[in-house]
Amino acid sequence: MTVTTALPSFDEAIATYEPVMGMEVHVELGTATKMFCGCSTEFGGEPNSQVCPVCLGLPGSLPVVNRTAVESAIRIGLALNCSIAEWCRFARKNYFYPDMPKNFQTSQYDEPIAFDGWLDVTADGETYRIEIERAHMEEDTGKSLHVGGATGRIHGASHSLLDYNRSGIPLIEIVTKPIYVPREVAPAVAKAYVTELRELIRALGVSEARMELGQLRCDANVSLRLPGDPLGTRTETKNVNSLRSVERAVTHEIRRQAAVLSSGGTIIQETRHWHEDTGETTAGRVKEEAEDYRYFPEPDLVPMAPSREWVDGLRGTLPEPPAARRARLQADWGFTDLEMRDVVNAGAVALVAATVDAGASAGGAKKWWLGEVARVANERGVALEDAGISAADVARVEELIAAGSLNDKLARQVVEGVLAGEGTPDEVVAARGLVLVNDDAALGAAVDDAIAAQPDVAEKIRGGNLGAVGALIGAIMKTTKGQADAKRARELILERLQS
Amino acid sequence: MNSLTRARASELAAAVRDGEVSAVEVTQAHLDRIAAVDGTAEAGVHAFLHLDADGALAAAAAVDEKRAAGEELGLLAGVPLALKDVIVTSDMPTTVGSKLLEGWQPPYDATITRRLREAGIVILGKTNLDEFAMGSSTENSAYGVTRNPWDLTRIPGGSGGGSAAALAAFEAPLAIGTDTGGSIRQPAAVTGTVGVKPTYGGVSRYGLVACASSLDQAGPCARTVLDAALLHTVIAGHDPLDSTSIDQPVPDVVAAARRGAEGDLSGLRVGVVKELGGEGYQAGVEARFNDAVALLSKLGAEVVEVSCPHFKYGLPAYYLILPSEVSSNLARFDAMRYGLRVGDDGSRSAEEVMSLTRGQGFGAEAKRRIMLGTYALSSGYYDAYYGQAQKVRTLIARDFEAAFAQVDVLVSPTTPTTAFPIGEKVDDPLAMYMNDLCTIPSNLAGNASASFPAGLADEDGLPVGLHVMAPVMADDRLYLVGAAVEAAYAAQWGGTLLEQAPALEGIAP
Ligand SMILES: [Zn+2]
Prior knowledge:
The structure holds 2 protein chains of 2 kinds.
Chain A: H1 10-16, E1 18-28, H2 67-79, E2 83-84, E3 91-94, E4 104-107, E5 114-123, E6 126-139, E7 143-147, E8 159-163, E9 170-176, H3 186-204, E10 216-225, E11 235-238, H4 243-262, E12 270-275, E13 280-286, E14 296-297, H5 308-315, H6 322-333, H7 337-345, H8 349-357, H9 362-380, H10 391-402, H11 408-419, H12 425-432, H13 440-453, H14 455-462, H15 469-479, H16 486-498
Helix pairs in contact in A: 1-4, 3-4, 8-9, 8-10, 9-10, 9-11, 10-11, 11-12, 13-15, 13-16, 15-16
Chain B: H1 3-6, H2 9-17, H3 23-37, E1 48-51, H4 53-68, E2 80-84, H5 111-118, E3 122-127, H6 161-168, E4 174-179, H7 185-191, E5 194-197, E6 217-222, H8 225-235, H9 253-260, E7 269-273, H10 283-298, E8 302-306, H11 314-329, H12 350-361, H13 364-376, H14 383-406, E9 409-413, H15 429-433, H16 440-445, E10 448-456, E11 463-470, H17 475-493
The structure holds zinc ion (ZN).
């Protein structure tokens, strides 16, 4: 049953209510092995092929902390300007679920490894400081696959399959303090925060942070209040797994809650599911009272006391902060603020930088990544980096253009070929025979044919009407199937008709 | 009875090394003895839940081959051992005394199991215990009781009643136990055997099915102090698979046992814990304990009385911490991946199957502790129960610290009473819990402790244990004291205490 209610517009909603947000982001670390055992973390293995007694929670097995994961957690904490705990512990979060083999999750509770930090983000040209409450370590659960139901959810399923390959993969959960920003930019700030965080995680090299693979998962908490009132009841929208969805989900939740409140209703504290297709959230589990996870310190692990020398050493490994890096790149590339924002919003900073490093012009790199590649990636619903073309490929196309062996039209065909999996730019050029005709002998013959075929046009040009040149070039392009170098053709026409 | 089954482990190993007897002959002698006395849950000692005669004989044959090939043999190579069924084995089922794990075949070996095999020790089988190692009588086993070889109508202690009874019945010269609140020491006391709980972290817990993770400690069980020390050396030492394992050299317990056997304790300061005695302690137990203290003086030790004022809070603190950890550790038994599954007929949800399985699979004591622990960890109660108990734990550790600033070891009776009749306390959990009054403080503080035979109580003729407590990583002091006492008593009794135990010939049906 679908109940359609007319929601107020975003502007109407925020005319009355002030939104307050809180973001919880889970990042799957890119360590080679799991959080507490030596199993591989590789994505896409046969179900239950990357498991051992520890990550299956078999009786008698014990966890051992992955030092690289702790190192990544500390580096994330430092990059988020957090304090790093001098002493902290893991805790057990107890609840029953079949995809959790021990029926408790080894996590951190009141003693996170990193706490009290901040991250500056820019939305609509303004910078906002997002306060970070904590970043803590935990292990991922396995995956349940519900079979036989219509929706893939457990409801209506005939049976379920369990895959524990993901069980025990290290996660870092980053939790913000309540985010208070001017109401009109709230959704944009939410998106900017996740974008910036993703950029930071990638710059740290601790995860590829690919949202479409679940390597970065976002839960958005939203509540509304009248100005001056205490915080309202919040909802938690789960699994908002693209940057665009973050902004849409927050916008939708603000509008939905405004509709409920302005009709005299109350917001229920609950988990909500985000639906990418409809752009709506639906009610999930109701949290009547705080779930009792019976946290207690994990007795199978000793407390961690990261030495200050270690922490300081890790501080020295931090990359240039993304904001500073962007400012530097923008200056190097000579982009306007608007151009740079387009690149950032497209998540293409690293790709453009790599393309420039491979020898392309910044403008050229931007044109391809935000143009043809973005169009194809969008059509296929994949990330830019998965569209099938590398930074080196794009740089090569630019090089061929600069050398005069491709024109824009041909270059587009080359990129299209690479994206279609036909090979490298040079292979596509060879296979499709996409060579610009610019040698005077071949081009000269086409020019002569065109002049002979259209004597009246030729006459106009002789009479000084240069606007008529285009008609001859069009004919030349037709006979050369678009492979003529238009600039040289023009020169040859003028040579013949004006000397 | 074959003399091979009465021999000490160290003697058997030497005989195998010297070629006087083969490891296969030694193993066969013990299998024969087991056939004669172990019986079933209905009659006999019933120390074993699972016997692996073929595996044991094969392991023994491998030792004989190694010897024939001229390879060097370990100090206990070829000696049979009884393994408590809480330690996982890749070639034998591991039930932990529970219906929930009936027939479960672990896919891996515990670190202890691996070290035993590498040392050439022959694992005969798996011994009975209270379900999930929770109990003081082995009556909580889902597979029936184990009987005390001194009196088959009495309990052998618990949870490691099977391992202790196997030693006392001469079914094996060595055994492995685990001790969460006294499960090695109390069975040792009531069966007249030696049981050592090493320092927490001294022996790897990897592959020990957890009862309460912060309290569980595996250790050696034997009929003599030197045998226990030799076994201690095999199983102890750092294990990278157990984060709580101590990365320090193992104390030289064998040297300490040899030195102790010389009978000179001069210079040793011994503290008698004032709070562990008096009301509730059986007269015969107190008498044997007082004899032992007098003996220590006679051997040259300086004996003083020491107060540990917080020990009296040990039992209540223990019964909050233990159930809390149990409630979490036992959550994994949910019928999803292994073990018992009840009600999976296609009509029920996973949650219903979990619930039915746990309802039917766990015994009463396990359920009692899961409920207690779930409650103690609940939000709103955590500080009052679990939090408060952890504070008591710190206070008890400080009592030990203060005491060990004055003395080298502490002593007390191991248990307030001798072995009680089977069935006597099954309906009175609080009376049952009192068995562990003296042993619990060392689990809470993590220090080393042991029980050594101290004679028979006058009123019932049953064994009494001398409990010795040493500081963290000073396990060697236990062996020093134990061996000195053992040597003095052997002179007095004309042998070990167990030589006075019934022969049990022909009791198995
Ligand atoms: Zn694993």
